[in-house]
């Protein structure tokens, strides 16, 4: 049984390992292991994770069973659009997928930003599994972009949005 809670500094290494595992599982087929390794080392360094956990307008959640993390989610207020939250990460360990962990993480994340009206997420274009997951949660495509994850990445993506319930 996994419980969703706010991440802390004690989780940084477990988060880093989980992100490496999930990124390789999700993206190696599209981008190759070498490119994914570069993404992981740049985007998911210990310092990058620690700064996300401490971000003032953000929320970093983990699904924890007391022994291991089954998934993580990170979102933050999107400064470019009023009342919008950007879901930057939602990843579930491959061995824990299809157990409802992603749904539980998202359900908790939806409650973390009571003033937000919209949640956005960017999904790498080849990641049909993720697009389907977000569609089941009520997201729909609103735009496309050429540079997913980082400038000059060359990785196209779609932008999906969901209107949030006002609390």
From TrEMBL:
This protein's name: GNAT superfamily N-acetyltransferase
Matching InterPro entries: Acyl_CoA_acyltransferase, Bact_Acetyltransf, GNAT_dom
Biological source species: Aliirhizobium cellulosilyticum
Enumerate the UniProt keywords alphabetically: Acyltransferase, Transferase
Q: Give the source's domain of life in one word.
A: Bacteria
SUPFAM superfamilies associated with the record: Acyl-CoA N-acyltransferases (Nat)
Cite the N-acetyltransferase domain residue spans from the record: 2-165
GO terms of molecular function = acyltransferase activity, transferring groups other than amino-acyl groups
